[in-house]
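Reviewers of the previous submission asked for a worked example of the structure-prediction workflow described in the proposal, so we include one complete record here. The input consisted solely of the amino acid sequence. No template or homolog information was supplied to the procedure at any stage.
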Amino acid sequence: MNLRIVAFTTLATLAASAHAQQPANDALSTYLRRSYAALSKDLRAAVELMPEQDFAFRPAGAVKEVRTFGEIVVHVAAANAFSCEMGDGKPASKLRVDSTLTVDKARLLALLNETDSRCTAYLATLTDTALSQVITTGSAPRVLQAVRGNSIIFAIVHANEHYGNLVTYLRTKGLVPPAAAAQAGFLSLATPAKP
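From that input alone, the workflow returned the following C-alpha cells.
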C-alpha cells in the first residue's frame, strides 16, 4: 500500500512537471484517467477472485466496526460514485445499499461497473485546465465547493488505501492479489540481484 502511494505521488509530480513544460498535452488528466482505470481493474479483479462465501469475512478478533470484504467494496464504490458526481456536477446516482449487497458477488460487480462507467465518462471530459476549476455541488444547507481535480485524486488515493485492505483479506484466504504479478515485475527492476 505504501509503495502505491509513493508511486502515485512520484508519478503525479512527474506528470505535473511534464504538464508545466508542455501545457497542451494534458499530461496530468491523462495520468489520472490511466490511474483510475488501473485501480478499477484491480478492484474488480479482487472481487472476482474472492469466493462469494468469503464476502462476509473480517479478520479474526476484529471488532464489528472493521468492515467485511464486501463492506469495503461497497464503501469504495460509494466513495468513488460521490467523488465523480461531485466532479462532474451531475445528479447523484441512486446507489441502493442493503444488507444483502455486501455478500452478493454479482451485485457488487454490477455496482463497480456502474460506478466505473460514470467515473470513466467523467474522466474522459477532463483536461488539465479543468482540474483546477472550482465546482459547487449540493443544495442548501449542504452546499459543497471543491477544486475539480481534488475529487478524482481523492477517489484514487482512497480506493488504493482500501485496495490494500482487500489485498490483506485475499492473502489471509490464501489468494494471490490481482496486482501482485505486476508489482513483482516492477519491484524486480529496483531490487538488486541476490549474490
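The mean pLDDT is 83. We consider this example representative of the routine output the project will generate in years two and three.
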